Amino acid sequence: MTNLSDEEKDHLDRVADQYHKEEMERERQLDLDDELAVEYERRERVKDAVARRRALAARPKVDSYGRSAEQLLIEVSPEVDWIVPRLLSRKSVSKLASREKVGKGVFSAYVVGCLERGEPTFFGPSPAELVTTLILTEEPPDSFREKVEAAGIERATVVFGHELALAWETKVEALVEKALHHGHGLIWIDNLARATGITGSEENDNTLGGMVGRLGDRAAAAGLTVLLNHHHRKTEGNIADLSRGGTALAAACDVNVEMERADAKNTQDRRRRLTAQGRIDATNWVLGVELSDDRSSYALVDVPAARNGDLARQAKADAAQSMAALHLAEMGSATAKQFAERWSVAERTAKRHLDHLADKGGGHRDDQRT
User: Fold this and answer.
1) Residue 289 and residue 298 in contact, taking contact as beta carbons nearer than 8 Å
2) SS3 353
3) What dihedral do alpha carbons 268, 151, 197, 257 form, nearest 10°?
4) DSSP class of 297
5) What CA–CA distances, in Å, run from 278 to 87, 95, 156, 163, 282?
6) Contact at 8 Å (CB) between 84 and 123?
7) Neighbouring C-beta atoms of residue 285, cutoff 10 Å
8) Which helix (H) or strand (E) holds 194?
9) CB 182 within 8 Å of CB 131
């Protein structure tokens, strides 16, 4: 064995001591890590326990929520707060959809014009308090000006899409703020897909429905009503499935109205078939309408059956209901005989439609009159 000098022996001893200290420090650090892990787990358990206790404490008392069915019937009025009877109720979302260039923009402009003048639509009377509109349009200014002029719109605020190049959540807030600032009661978005920025597969999954749901919730919280214009798919099928956006979009809207040409092969025919499906009975109907020569108004007309005889019969019944509502708006009251003479129908038929209108909340029955 090589003899080591005292200096070398001292160096080796120092190295060994240093190694021993480092080993002890590593063991101490491992022990500390174990202690920290145990403490972390303990604190996490405490946090979970506190969160559970807070959740339990936040629960409402069992008798503080809910109501009996009898209370519901007392608390909720059967009268619907209509802006446009059977189409737009206050704080709701209604969607009007069709293929391109079928006339949903012209039709929506007609509704907006009637509301701001307090004039009745073919659906029935407008509210006594005038309702004006904030319009978000993706149309070129010249073509949209034509619609505004034809419908006689003067008090609306028009925003072009390029003026609000924002993310959807921010755009919703901007629209609500703008509507409230100008005292409007209705927001009309004339091209839903372009306003949301949705394209491709997102348009047919749940994305669009969720975006409309958030718009509807925010607008309703502010006391505003929403009218949306949307496009049909380029396919045939059940009338309820024609709108892009899938079932999620339909579910997010209170009323879904599908517009079709009465004669699909004749683009010059101004008649349209409107088919509505909504949450309440009054918003389920089929109507035939025809645009006037000057494109300023619509009249109720008979249209060919869309898909089966039931729809045709429903269209005639719904047209009669709208005529009854208009008659009451014009006259203030009506007997079955007066209605029959005014609209050239049998008195028994007139009575049935007036009774049905009263049952739906569109008037009040006076059994002393006939």
Assistant:
1) yes
2) helix
3) -70
4) -
5) 9, 10, 27, 33, 8
6) yes
7) 23
8) helix 192-196
9) no
